[in-house]
Amino acid sequence: MNPLFHIAGGQLRAARRVVRRAMGSAVSIGALMLASPGFAQSTTPPPAPADASGPITILPKMTVVEQMMRDFPPFLKTEVVSPDFSDRTPPIDMLYPGKAYNEGVSEGNATVGVMLDAEGQPTDFLLIRYTKRYFGDALLREAHRQEFKARRVKGVAVPGRFNFGTRFTPTAVMQMTSFNAIEERDIEIEGGPRAIYEPHLEREIDNGGLELTHATIALIPDAYEAPKGKAVKAFVSFYVDEQGHVRLPNVEGAASVLLIPNAIKAVQHWEFKPPTLKGKPVLVFALWSVAFERFNPTAFPAAPTARP
């Protein structure tokens, strides 16, 4: 994932910080509405520190506003072709982890998220959910070997998140103790083993929500003619990892497909106070609306010229 973002006809190049990325998870649009409480905040990021490799970039004011879904409804199912595995790659077929055999674990589950660019190239991988860590690690390794097809919205290839999971079952007969047999019966009744790691919603974490600490703006692209007197917004879901970094942003709704790349580039640079639940670091799934602004050349100082 490129930490640089290039917007407004080449006038703005910001490389304030290298974005760490990862994470994603499949969540229904209905569940998305539970991801974040009503929130309105304006943040003015501090000037970027001096960097010997380039000019100082001062980012103008960015506004993030949580809105009702009716203000910018999500894309219709008929408008979206979800990302997928490439036709060139074989189906996932992994060996059952040896550690699971040793522990007598009868089955397991794991989910991985992959951030794909508009060409379908993976730019970030995130372990989202697992019943045992070794199941998650096995699926994550497999994800790195796969090839993918990009997400398409209204016929246009765009960057987006691809989540996939698998159920692990042993191929050999396992010798089970009576305790293992009882545990397997419980799993069957409950519909599968319980995840020991999975994302939480904003309303579940300490302090009732995420705390934004750093933000970059989403700029209206030159090719998009914004309606006069009407705010330009996008509906973006993303994960925030245990370090407070945004991972796998996905645009769920926007007035135009042209807004998708700029919304993702901006959100990738956001940072939050590391989220916790009962004092322990956790992965969080969130849904925010992003307000776009027009490019204002006066808000960005000219790059200093090197002396001969």
**Class computed from helices, strands and strand pairing:** alpha+beta
Estimate the mean pLDDT confidence.
75
Note the main sheet.
5 strands, mixed
Question: Roughly how many Å is the radius of gyration?
Answer: 22 Å
Strand content: 25-35%
Please, how many helices? 5
Under CATH at level 1, the class of the largest domain stands as Alpha Beta
CATH architectural name of the largest domain: 2-Layer Sandwich
Share of helix, binned: 10-25%
Short description:
The chain is α+β, with helices and mostly antiparallel strands and 308 residues long. The chain has helices at residues 29-32, 98-103, 133-145, 178-190, 260-267, and strands at 5-7, 12-14, 40-43, 62-65, 80-81, 84-85, 108-116, 122-130, 148-149, 151-153, 156-158, 160-168, 200-201, 212-214, 218-219, 233-240, 246-254, 271-272, 276-277, 280-281, 284-293.
